[in-house]
Structures are given as structure tokens and as C-alpha cells.
Write a structure and sequence with these properties.
alpha+beta; two-stranded antiparallel sheet; 1 helix; 20% helix
């Protein structure tokens, strides 16, 4: 999640993430998670199109 509340899906194969549309961040109890600058980690963000292209190259599609 970023400071604006946008949620991202991690793609370990690319060491990156893509924006998850219409998603919210919740803990295991269903409570909303707030952004924390102390817990934040920098992650490379890719467009969905770029991620799909890179993944298809990795699999040989």
C-alpha cells in the first residue's frame, strides 16, 4: 500500500508489484490497515501490461 491508500499486488518473479484496482488493505481480522512510513518498503511498480509482457517472456509464451 502507498501513502495514498493504493494497494499493490506483489510479483516475486519480477521483484516488482502492480496496482490492484478496486482493492483495500485489511488485516486478518478485516480491519483496515493504515499506511505507516516506518513499515514502508520501496518496491518497483510496473504497469499491468509491462508485467504481463515480462512474465510471458520468462515463461516462453
Amino acid at each position: 500500500m502507498d501513502k495514498d491508500g493504493n494497494v499493490y499486488a506483489g510479483i516475486p518473479e519480477l521483484d516488482a508489484a502492480v496496482l490492484s484496482e478496486n482493492a483495500i488493505a485489511c488485516d486478518e481480522n478485516g480491519e483496515l490497515i493504515a499506511f505507516s512510513v516506518f513499515d514502508a518498503k520501496r518496491v518497483k511498480v510496473l504497469s499491468m501490461e509491462s508485467a504481463m509482457e515480462q512474465l510471458s517472456m520468462n515463461v516462453g509464451w
